[in-house]
Design a protein that fits this description.
4 copies of one chain form a homotetramer. Chain A is of the alpha/beta class. The first copy, chain A, contains 8 helices and 13 strands.
Chain lengths: ~290, ~290, ~290, ~290
């Protein structure tokens, strides 16, 4: 295997000796263990591990590595995945008519601060095409009506699949995705919700926040699931506000939080820092985030 | 009037010239205006003002001041209140078996950082009596059962009224107060809820926060109203948490937030910084909070 | 005067009756007072006020307003300025080779979230020209050596003056400006420093932060003065970091703080929220920031 | 060994296979590894590990464990320490005349939220004796003058040593300790400094913060070293402030930050989460802090 970082994500029933067995396995295969993070959920008696390896100097192939690992993984009932640093992930952005998240993500991609290929921007409006053109990213305008929803989603799925998209980012795409769509990309669609979930689920959270007179507003990035705004939470943040805020100024203040929260969530996903367990996202920290 | 700070809180329909008329009034009466804070709610077309005056050198009496002010206030449809610095407010604390908010408030009172008299601690358990004794505050143990709830609340009301209590602080009092009780002390009961409202209303918020996998936990101080956990929010704060938190550790982390949030809300109330409008609390900032 | 917001910034020795006199003046001239914020510095016995007026329906001209105001201002020893909403400010950005602040500010200007004209970008490197072109803003490449510094600064001054630039933003311009340059634009040059001032003044703050093992890193926006990194602080923010951060990852984490801090400082300046007093910047808050 | 948590802290030159070798060692001895945290400093090529073990069911004695571990540790050049959960640490508090940190720590100890024995309070003033009495902790009043400093410190050292004190907490003890004293308790004295270090080192940080017009104030907990305010930083936090703050109100706002920062640092130390490397404190996180 050529020099690269290899990341394993592992989830299994808790038991004695796991960390020793796993780290031994990689040591025996000649890897240098860059980091090894674990989390024990003692309420559910389950174990989670993220191991980052340096493949430098190993002579094993990817296939050999995975086949050998199966011999360790199967008797211990691992759910696991492996991710190779030499494979760059393909990303699609979905937007409607709000631009701040789109600008922010494109700037990060362009400046090399998010490690992926942005292959396309898909929108149900034509309004943000000029931004796609500024950043030289293909823009697909696929309008939607109640009648054409199924057809439009079919077109999107075809676009995503034919471009081998690994991650879909709903950067303020203001349409509810069908279960069919969601289930086609499990844990591969990240959505930004403009409130601190589970407060103010559904539409118009800034209006509701104003009416409730909250003293903090927030944003939440989560994996999209069939239950709207109920998916595993990846990242959240808030900012203090005062009684002076109107729904309109809350929206402006919120935009900066939404940008940071979505960007961090995307980075965590692209870095393979996340294991989903039920409705909870285990997010291993990484320095330099 | 002897030397003291006098605070007016005013709420009225918005109209031209309010700040000039009000500040003129106090200037003519010989007051020095220490601060004058306003908030215009242009959605509801209403106006809010907090004026702090230095009475030093004035010769007007309290009665004369209030009678004169009525001549300004009535034609402009003011709702208003006035608060004199020479009258210290009487406070009652209500607790059950959690001690952190109680310690924190008593320490602040004792060290002179909350300007009031703590007249009593009321509890439905006997567990925290030793803390009352440490701080030399009368402790009333009034146990409660489903059958005695009405009677117990009657005893509390009698205690509060006979001691001229101005403010009731529910410092983790784990009983739901009846509407009769709540309405006896409108905007004079402050409650601390151990989550970021309106997320996780009702019981066991830390358990629910764990199950939802949130990345921030918080606390909310609000005025008690008939609708549980729906009263005007005075103060909120949050702290980042990770997937590693259990309901138990969330409780420990949350305790520090609860202490700060309740203490700030109480300080804002005692300083006459708050005007309640519908379900929203207008909280004017004050340096040195 | 046509319909617009007019903002007065006033600084004078403290004395009785100021708020009444000032608000009366504007009320008499037919203005609606949108907000009136004051700050009394009792240590230095000085008074600061920011008044925002709605000119709607007034018949007074700008000249008449200013001449009348002088009659109030002179006997009370006001330092004051007035700013009319119908005059959009001209802004110049100065950069070197770091792009994150530039992208962020251009996005905000483009999306209408910073009320000004970005007239030009000036750089001592050619590296960021493509960003200027993406956003259609003139780019001036003015390289600098020790020998040509005086000449280069002369060229910049000429560019700024001939374009009537009101505000210069050093968005990571990595050159020390001469006193001559600084004094040509007093309180009109905003700089972003990549640390929490006064910690880590001077060069390489992220390196120093790593070596000191700090647990928070920050950014500071301030007016440029002759003493490097000593000018009045407008805005600061920090983010928690851990021992795992390297100088390189601190730089990445810091970039997001720098973007927010500089954008807020620029907004505060453009909104006329700031009065500088000695080395302290009085920054009046504004909802919707 | 009876059922308890055993914590190893290890620091050594980085090399391949460390995590496998160490976890194997403990697995072979029959321990369950509760958590295993590592940090690689690639700038200095050094490796840090914190391992928490459950001794439940092991038959090895403490001596046997430590002797066996030496065989692993010596060839790999470990600096290491081991800490047993069945040994409660003894703590001494040093104070002068400021009470907030003292109240806060005593409340936490009393309520079982800091796992240690508070054996004594030492002060150069008699002012806080009543708090010691409230919490039933021995209070030693040891006044100090320039002439008696050496003698007074000698008395303190004798008190600490004869009571087997493991940790000294300077909870706002306003005297500079001599090098002799500091070096007697290396990495066993924690100090709270009332600013965000390295800003505003030395005396009167709130005064200096006011004069500099900062928009955030903070607190820093660090190990005491010979160079005043230069020791390894354990914990820091800040809070936003405005131009309205005076040195006096900054002090009040700061008190709440100081309480949280010192309490967290003490908890991190008591939980054996810290390894000091040069002037940097490696602080491993722990859920439930």
């Amino acid at each position: 295997m050529k020099s690269q970082v290899v990341t394993f994500l592992i989830n299994c029933p808790d038991q004695k000796g796991l960390v020793a067995k796993i780290t031994n396995f990689f040591y025996d295969k000649g890897f240098n263990i860059l980091s090894c993070q674990q989390y024990v959920n003692s309420i559910e008696n389950s174990y989670f591990m993220r191991v980052r390896l340096n493949a430098d100097g190993t002579i094993i192939s990817k296939d050999q590595l995975e086949n050998s690992f199966l011999e360790l993984a199967d008797p211990l009932h691992f759910s696991w995945s492996v991710h190779y640093g030499d494979k760059k992930q393909n990303v699609a952005l979905m937007v409607s008519h709000t631009s701040h998240n789109l600008y922010d993500l494109l700037e990060r991609f362009r400046e090399g601060r998010l490690d992926c290929n942005v292959k396309m921007i898909i929108s149900n409006h034509n309004k943000l095409r000029h931004i796609a053109e500024m950043f030289d990213v293909p823009f697909y305008y696929l309008p939607i009506t109640k009648e054409t929803k199924e057809e439009q989603e079919g077109q999107i799925i075809q676009l995503l699949d034919s471009n081998n998209i690994d991650l879909v980012i709903m950067a303020r795409y203001m349409q509810i995705l069908s279960s069919r769509f969601i289930n086609h990309y499990p844990q591969r669609i990240i959505n930004i919700h403009h409130s601190f979930l589970p407060a103010f689920q559904g539409a118009n959270p800034y209006r509701k926040a104003y009416e409730r007179g909250v003293k903090l507003i927030g944003a939440t990035a989560h994996y999209a699931t069939e239950d709207l705004d109920e998916g595993p939470i990846i990242e959240q943040d808030v900012k203090p506000v005062t009684h002076e805020s109107t729904p309109q100024t809350l929206k402006i203040i919120g935009a900066d939080i939404e940008k940071l929260v979505l960007a961090r969530a995307v980075k965590n996903h692209l870095n393979h820092q996340i294991i989903v367990s039920g409705n909870r996202a285990i997010v291993f920290p990484e320095a330099g985030e």
